[in-house]
Design brief:
Elements: H1 2-9, E1 18-23, E2 26-31, H2 34-47, E3 55-58, E4 63-66, E5 69-71, E6 75-79, H3 80-85, E7 97-101, H4 107-120, E8 125-130, E9 135-143, E10 146-154, E11 158-163, E12 166-171
Parallel strand pairs: 7-8
Antiparallel strand pairs: 1-2, 3-6, 4-5, 6-7, 8-9, 9-10, 11-12
């Protein structure tokens, strides 16, 4: 795992203000915006108290899937003892729930590429928060070709994720929407 992380580590200082990942063999740098960070912070603060003591939340650390895919999820729920180890890279097999916040440059990655990889590793639930469209996409029931269950819900009502960790509730009414995005339906 450390060898894979060294691929990404070479680029960490080259893109200040950007989050870097390796996706399909390409180094991808995504700008970090206030709406993106605010969404992560708000979801983390409501999610963490709902988890049992055995689980913790981490953000923007490397999960190497293979030599061509090193993802840094916006939020990942993994065992608390692993979070306590404070590593720079973790096995994706530890992830129970993964959350991505869409930015203009990550639409295809968050909606098409990452779900296939997350499902292939048996990650039970994947939640995509999309401030560009003002909605959340929750997928579950992972299989070898992707997730078999999918719901798209507009921001506003509370979102409940029925996960192996229990029912987790994410209030979406206060999540920021991108002011340059298409108006919400």
């Amino acid at each position: 795992m450390k060898r894979l992380h060294t691929q990404l580590a070479r680029f960490e200082d080259a893109f200040p203000g950007f989050r870097t990942e390796i996706v399909e063999g390409a180094v991808v740098a995504s700008p970090v915006t206030p709406h993106h960070g605010s969404t992560i912070q708000r979801v983390w603060s409501v999610l963490e108290p709902q988890l049992g003591q055995g689980w913790g939340v981490t953000s923007d650390v490397v999960f190497p899937f293979d030599e061509e895919n090193e993802f840094c999820p916006d939020l990942a729920v993994i065992p608390a003892p692993e979070v306590a180890r404070n590593e720079i890279a973790y096995s994706p097999d530890l992830i129970e729930l993964v959350i991505e916040v869409v930015s203009r440059g990550s639409i295809r990655r968050d909606h098409e590429i990452k779900p296939r990889w997350y499902a292939s590793r048996g990650i039970a639930n994947y939640l995509v928060l999309d401030p560009l469209k003002g909605h959340a996409v929750t997928v579950w029931n992972p299989g070898p070709d992707g997730y078999r269950g999918r719901d798209t819900l507009p921001y506003g009502p509370d979102l409940t994720v029925d996960s192996p960790l229990g029912k987790l509730t994410v209030p979406t009414a206060g999540l920021p929407g991108d002011p340059k995005a298409r108006p919400r339906p």
